[in-house]
Amino acid sequence: MIDPWASSELDYEKLVNQFGIKKFSEILKKVKNPSTLMKRGVIFGYRDFDKIAKLINDKQDFAVVTGMMPSGKMHIGHKMVVDQLKWYHEQGGYLSLSIADMEAYAARNISFSQGKEIAINEYLSNYIALGLDLTDENIYTYLQSEESTLNDFSYQLSKKVNLADMKAIYGFNNTTNIAHLYAPIIQVGDILLPQHENFGGPKNVVVPVGVDQDPHIRLTRDIAYKFREELGLISPASTYHRFITGLTGGKMSSSQPKTAIFLNDSPKEAEKKTKTAKTGGRESLQEQKELGGCPDRCVIYEMLVYHLIEDDKKLKEIYDECKSGELLCGHCKAMTAELMGEFFENLHTKKEESLEIAKTIL
Ligand code: TRP
Ligand code: SF4
């Protein structure tokens, strides 16, 4: 079972085999203008994405749904979702962005007023600073607790799921409070909301997520299927991205500050933290020169892949030079830290203005 509220290490291959998630590499060719994260295999899996690829290629309408639980600080791993949203927006998708304040209340004890404040100060302002134009008419951002169609719709959808299903999918038991029990139903509502008649009726939707969210995707697909005749709902497609590795080599987690670079860190801090990252270097300089490094197990290299180097050729050069032992970790780290610093400088110049815009969105 995958528990969406716990953090665990994941074996991506296994997920692809066991849960019916398909390999993204197998349909990459069908996407005319794939995003960087798609080309680099960061997005590794999908359900039904072939349908979405076709709509994108043919310039037809589709919607993209994601949600953010306003519970902590945004770290650099969260940027990945924003990058995907920017790409979909450029491809003509309609974006529906949920701020999961009801989930934060149910699962993390965050009050509704706290949730709204965190959403604006931390999430929306960073989304804007990272380049997603939330004022665009093709992007709808809402708080779960304030979206009445969502709440009515979720209630309607909940008719076709029972307690046994919820226990089997999420491991809920007799002490699970009802708000928590209901939180996944609200998320199902989020994902199907663009298909509600108030939002134009049935259409194809894609949900870009980390695999921890797959139980919600499966539940949503199942419920949509059960409502196919009554409401004409179409089961949503999904894509799955890898999680970014933390600075210490495990998971990057907001609740463990040593593992994460936060988007609100200063450029100096971000640079300093980058230098503490675990590398795929060898024990000694001698060994590194002889055997080469292991970029596939290097947090520094991962930062370059996910965030810091756009040019595929340049990236390949670094990979090859690392493997051949030509490139040494000290130099590579210094270069990466500098790029990280520049990235944060740029982000910080946009912060103030972004926050002002964020305050007008909800
Ligand atoms: N449960 C998600 C999280 O923990 C947030 C979320 C709410 C979401 N609604 C969603 C994600 C809809 C994808 C689609 O972060
Ligand atoms: Fe990582 Fe760079 Fe060292 Fe290679 S040279 S292991 S990419 S830090």
Number of helices: 15
Strand content: 5-15%
Q: Which runs of at least 5 residues are low in confidence (pLDDT < 50)?
A: none
Query: From the 3D coordinates, which CATH architecture of the largest domain would you assign?
Result: 3-Layer(aba) Sandwich
The distinct ligands, each listed once, are: tryptophan, iron/sulfur cluster
What multimeric state do the chains show?
Answer: single chain
Please give the number of β-strands.
7
Kindly identify the CATH topology of the largest domain: Rossmann fold
**What strand line-up does the widest sheet have?**
1-2-7-6-3-4-5
Count of discrete structural domains = 2
Would you tell me the structural class of the helices and strands?
A: alpha/beta
Cα(first) to Cα(last) distance is 35 Å
Gyration radius, in Å: 21 Å
Mean pLDDT across the residues is: 95
Order of SSEs, N→C?
A: HEHEHEHEHHEHHHEHEHHHHH
- Provide the CATH superfamily of the largest domain: HUPs
Major pleated sheet: 7 strands, mixed
Q: What general outline do the C-alpha atoms trace? A: globular
Query: What percentage of residues falls in helices of 4 or more residues?
Result: 40-55%
For the record, the CATH class of the largest domain is Alpha Beta
What does it look like?
This protein is α/β, with parallel strands linked by helices and 362 residues long. The protein folds into two domains: 12-241, Rossmann fold (3-Layer(aba) Sandwich); 265-358, Tyrosyl-Transfer RNA Synthetase. The chain is 48% helix and 10% strand. It is built from 15 helices and seven strands. A seven-stranded mixed sheet has the order 1-2-7-6-3-4-5, sandwiched between helices. α7 (148-157) packs across α9 (178-192), α9 packs across α10 (214-226) and α13 crosses α15 (329-358). It is globular. The mean pLDDT is 95. Bound molecules: tryptophan and iron/sulfur cluster (SF4). Iron/sulfur cluster is lined by residues 279-281, 293-295, 298, 300-301, 322, 327, 329, 332-333.
